[in-house]
Amino acid sequence: MRGCEFPREDPESCHGVDPRAPHRHGPLRIYGYMNLSSTGQMPEMEEVDTNESNWLAKRIALISFLSLVMLMSVLGNLLVMVAVCKDRQLRKIKTNYFIVSLAFADLLVSVLVMPFGAIELIHQNWIYGETFCLVRTSLDVLLTTASILHLCCISLDRYYAICCQPLVYRNKMTPLRVALMIGGCWIIPTVISFLPIMQGWNSIGINDLIEKRKFSGNSTVCVFMVNKPYALTCSVVAFYLPLVLMVLAYQRIYVTARAHARQINMLQRAGGAGNANSADHQRNHRMRTETKAAKTLCIIMGCFCLCWAPFFITNVVDPFIDYSVPEQLWVACLWLGYINSMLNPILYAFLNKSFRRAFLIILCCGQKRYRRPSILGPGATCTATQINGSTHVLKKPQSFRSHSCLLLLRR
Asked: What is the recorded membrane topology of this protein (predicted)?
């Protein structure tokens, strides 16, 4: 197609655009023509090429960063779920059922929420329609709230396990109660996300402002703005109230863990580790295990708060300052929260020995060196049999092949 020709005496419009007028995005190219600078001089080609190169480099860096966050989030959370499903020892710990449900929520964030946010951020345009914008926003609120409620339930589970007697923990954390708590972690976010957002309760009183922001120049934006009542209610239920419960629970856990550490030191000084009886040894082992688990979960909770606190603070402040928070700050706070979905599996791998071993077994295709040592010891040949309905193992040590010992291992 042939370009427009502009006569010298009339530099007026080809579609109403003056090719010699300065443009806010740099040199303007129209059908092969480049505009002159404000001084009437042709801009340097090196400067134009440098600007284009910088823009392209920033775009590639942004795409690479967003892709890395999404990929690591998907793979990491899948690894957590597979590890718990395949490792019998991990399945015995009730806390890990909350962790699996949390990993599932983070996986959904990385699959259903992040990709569409990344596409809109890169192209600066929303092309999926108003209805899907509401659905995507509802999923965002739902999964974000579900994540923090799972962490709140994990803190309560650790509180009962460490600060209460074992009998109290078994009575409190029954399988039915665990299932009800996990169900609540999904039902409550659904109530405060899909119901008000799809009904438009969050936009009451600010509809005109939302309509103005939906269209920015020639592009359409998926706008999610909330009025003051919804901002306060949603933020309190989704973040501030669970945060207070977690802080109180972990503060009590920390005090109890310190007391457990002092008891362990006193027992070791009084009788020595080698003279401690079996009951003391089991109790000390349980104290160490529960204390380390509590520290791990504290770090996970701290990372969650560090990632999501900026967003929820901004979410509450923005309606009270006439929605003047810059769009760039909103995007930065939102993606900082999304990064938390990538961090949880990394924290499990580096801070939890059981998860680390399970990850290595999965990633290294079940190599024997990463498996837990057998209670029968190395070099033992065993046969299993059934006696009175129980499973028993016959072990023949290498140094005593003429004898056999009967180990009763009731399943």
From this structure: Multi-pass membrane protein
